[in-house]
Design brief:
0% strand, 9 helices, disordered N terminus, single chain, 67% helix
């Protein structure tokens, strides 16, 4: 996924001995794998400890509950997501960001987020972690892209709030969440050529 570098979010801990950041990363990677395999409801602290190769006490020193553990992992995703570059044109920026979005949907984090959707209906803390973490980063990246395009005079003002702007990611997200069809580089290029770039061409400022 796309993101600027962010500071680590606050975490729920019990104190005790200093935490080893390398273990945190191993544990979070294990959580993502397990979420993709079994979903939130079947996730257990015992399974996380076994998957990560650590003792259960190591897990509980960091997180009191399964919910704390998953919320922290979602929030932390924004710290490690890829950063889209400024290519100098809206076409180049769109190509870069859409390929990053596609790569994110097929990553362990993307699979984990998709598995969490049923639980989010009943777990507002998970929804908040997603909105304030990965989703906020996506929105910020897109907003920066549209702002640069406006400043260069490539698109008309206000395009960022339009249906055309939403369409730049809608088809990828639909495949990711609904159809299960592959979201690969070939598909991204087809969406760009057939849908997105024609929409942007129609959004040029009037002479």
């Amino acid at each position: 996924m796309v993101a600027a570098q962010m500071t680590d979010p606050p975490r729920s801990t019990r104190g005790g001995r200093p935490r080893d950041p390398s273990r945190d990363e191993v544990i979070r990677a294990a959580i993502l794998r397990l979420l993709a395999e079994v979903g939130y409801s079947a996730l257990t602290m015992d399974a996380v400890a076994a998957e990560a190769g650590v003792g259960k006490a190591t897990i509980y020193r960091r997180w009191r509950t399964k919910q704390d553990l998953v919320v922290d992992t979602i929030a932390d995703m924004s710290r490690v997501m890829a950063v889209p570059t400024d290519t100098g044109t809206i076409e180049g920026d769109l190509r870069e960001i859409m390929h990053l979005v596609a790569a994110a949907t097929t990553s362990p984090a993307g699979a984990a987020i998709r598995s969490l959707l049923p639980a989010m209906q009943h777990q507002p803390e998970l929804v908040a972690a997603f909105r304030n973490g990965p989703l906020a980063v996506w929105r910020a990246a897109y907003a920066a892209m549209w702002a640069r395009a406006e400043a260069r005079g490539e698109v008309r003002p206000g395009l960022a709030q339009s249906v055309a702007a939403e369409a730049t990611s809608a088809l990828i997200v639909q495949r990711w969440l609904l159809t299960g069809e592959p979201v690969d580089d070939e598909y991204v290029e087809r969406v760009l050529d057939v849908v997105v770039l024609p929409l942007i061409a129609n959004a040029r400022p009037e002479a």
